[in-house]
Amino acid sequence: MYVVATPIGNLQDLSPRAAQTLGSVARIAAEDTRHSGRLLAHLGLNVPMLSLHDHNEAQRVEQLDRYLAAGEDIALISDAGTPLISDPGFVLVRALRQRGRHIVPVPGPSALITALSAAGLPTDRFTFAGFLPAKPAVRKQALEQWQGHEATLVFYESPHRIVPTLAALSEVMGQREVVLARELTKTFETFLSGTPAELLIQLEEDPNQARGEFVVMVHGAPPRTEQSQHAFSEETLLKTLLAEGVGVKQSAAVAARVFGGRKQSWYARLQAIKSDD
Ligand code: SAM
Question: 126 and 102 in one domain?
Answer without folding.
Answer: no
